[in-house]
Amino acid sequence: MERISWDQYFMAQSHLLALRSTCTRLAVGATIVRDKRIIAGGYNGSIAGGVHCADEGCYMVDGHCIRTIHAEMNAILQCAKFGVPTEGAEIYVTHFPCIQCCKSIIQAGIKTIYYAKDYKNHPYAVELFDQASVKVEQVELDEMIIDLKNQEKLAFVADLIKQLADKGLEEEEIRKIHEEANKLFTSYV
Ligand SMILES: [Zn+2]
Ligand SMILES: [Zn+2]
C-alpha cells in the first residue's frame, strides 16, 4: 500500500475543515504547517458565539458576505491567539486566497501557499505573492485518499461492468460505462 504524500495529507485536512464552514456561499478550509506539523487550522465562519449564515442567511454587503472570517484569517488568528509563530510557514487552502487573505498571509510571513481550486485568482493577489516571493502552487486533492472504501467500490464496479459485457451489452455501451467509471475512480494527481 502506498503512503499518502504530505501535500495530500495537509490538503485533505483543509478539505475536512471546509466541511465545518457555516457560510453557505463557499466552504473553505486552511491549514498552516511548519516543519511538516500542523500548527493551526481554520474554516470560513462567524466569530465565536455569533450567528451562522447557515441559520440566518448571509449578511451581504456589496456582493460579499461580511459576517464570516475567512479560513486563512481564522488559521492565522489562531496562531495570534496562542502565540505561535507563522514566519516561514506554509498554508494549505482549498481555494485560491482572496486579496485580503493574500495580504494577511504575506504579512504573517507565510512563504508557501498550496491551493486546491482556482477561485477568482485576483491578478493583484498573484502580483503581491510574486513581489513578496511567496511560492504559490496548485495541489489538487486526490479525493480517493479520504474514501476508505475506494478499493471495494472500484472492484464492485469493475465486476458489474464485466457482468454487463458477459450479458452481451454492446461494446460501444460498455466502452461508455467504462469511461464514466474511469472518470469517477481515477485520481488526477
Ligand atoms: Zn455568509
Ligand atoms: Zn479570504
Automatic annotation (TrEMBL):
NCBIfam families: ComEB. Pfam families: dCMP_cyt_deam_1. Its cofactor is Zn(2+). Belongs to the cytidine and deoxycytidylate deaminase family. It comes from Bacillus haynesii. Residues 5-127 form the CMP/dCMP-type deaminase domain. GO terms for molecular function: dCMP deaminase activity; zinc ion binding. The keyword Manganese does not apply. InterPro entries: APOBEC/CMP_deaminase_Zn-bd, CMP_dCMP_dom, Competence_ComEB, Cytidine_deaminase-like, dCMP_deaminase-rel, Deoxycytidylate_deaminase_dom. Keywords: Hydrolase, Metal-binding, Zinc. GO terms for cellular component: cytoplasm. SUPFAM superfamilies: Cytidine deaminase-like. The keyword Zinc applies. This is ComE operon protein 2.
